[in-house]
Amino acid sequence: MSDDTIPARPLTSARAAELVAERSVADRVVIVTGAASGMGRATAELFGALGAKVAAADVSTAQLDAVVAGIVEAGGEASAHRLDVTDNDAITTFVDVARAAHGPIDILINNAGIAHGGPIDGEEFADAWYAVFAVNLHAHMHLIRACLPDLARNGDGRIINISSTEGLGGTANNSAYGAAKHGVIGLTKSLAVELGPKGITVNAICPGPVHTGMTELIPDEAKATFARRRTALRRYGQPHEVAHMTVSLAMPAASFVTGVALPVDGGMIARNQ
Ligand code: NAD
């Protein structure tokens, strides 16, 4: 028997309670970026509803206070932080403030993102490229570095990076976004290997088409046509459907899952025809 072989244990009420606890994020301290809207909002609210302590960050504060007020109203613990994730100094300060408010960080959700399309020969392309990389990839690195001592302290830290199905394939006129989202998956896999010995898991979620602020300007008819042609479920997803998978990867129960890029896409990647 190797050192990590544990004999099967019968299901007693004590063991059942342990199993339930393994599916709990209660009292874990979580940072969610881009928490004012869409999937970030749904993720912050779900963590809050499940008893996690939520540091909710966004560059836009219009909805952020309402998100945090909702969590507190529902009996949870949360704080709102205005943060531009492209500001490296502000990231360090934010993590210090979040730690002071709730305790050391257990879970980091790198969710904030922007989508700038455009053809490679477009006039604005280079500017869009740098802007997209700053928010969608470089910020992940800075936030991970700022949270790393906390995440490593107990050997059970969790990092979940929000990539996209655009991180698994390509779309014309979307190469800045696609390259950054592929980069998120590369970062995720490399850090999963690097941080595994510290007990930190690093995973990516790849949402498909989801009703959020990012997709609100796409006309309903275009959304319906796309979903019918491309997804197995023939529909767009809702933010909470992604949030549930994100939170699942943060549970103690997900302790042996690391380095994956998980599509949450209504079967879009699976579908050939
Ligand atoms: P959204 O626009 O509703 O939310 C994004 C949030 O990020 C906003 O609240 C915005 O203010 C915030 N944000 C943007 N720049 C920021 C910055 N510099 N600093 C801090 N916060 C910033 O969009 P969403 O769809 O919920 O996006 C969440 C994530 O999901 C993004 O990473 C996005 O790329 C990804 N994604 C979205 C879809 C989709 O169909 N909606 C599909 C795949 C991946």
Topology record:
Blueprint: H1 13-21, E1 29-33, H2 38-49, E2 53-58, H3 64-73, E3 77-82, H4 88-102, E4 107-110, H5 125-152, E5 158-162, H6 175-195, E6 201-207, H7 220-230, H8 239-250, E7 261-264
Parallel strand pairs: 1-2, 1-4, 2-3, 4-5, 5-6, 6-7
Helix pairs in contact: 2-3, 2-8, 4-5, 5-6
Bound molecules: nicotinamide-adenine-dinucleotide.
Nicotinamide-adenine-dinucleotide (NAD) binds at residues 33-34, 36-40, 58-60, 83-86, 111-115, 135, 162, 164, 207, 209-210, 212-215.
Description:
This protein has one domain (25-272): NAD(P)-binding Rossmann-like Domain (Rossmann fold, 3-Layer(aba) Sandwich), CATH 3.40.50.720. With 273 residues, the chain is α/β, with parallel strands linked by helices. Strands 3-2-1-4-5-6-7 form a 7-stranded parallel sheet, sandwiched between helices. The model has no long low-confidence stretch (mean pLDDT 97). The N and C termini lie far apart (48 Å). The protein is built from 8 helices and 7 strands; from the N terminus they run H-E-H-E-H-E-H-E-H-E-H-E-H-H-E. Helix 2 (38-49) runs parallel beside helix 3.
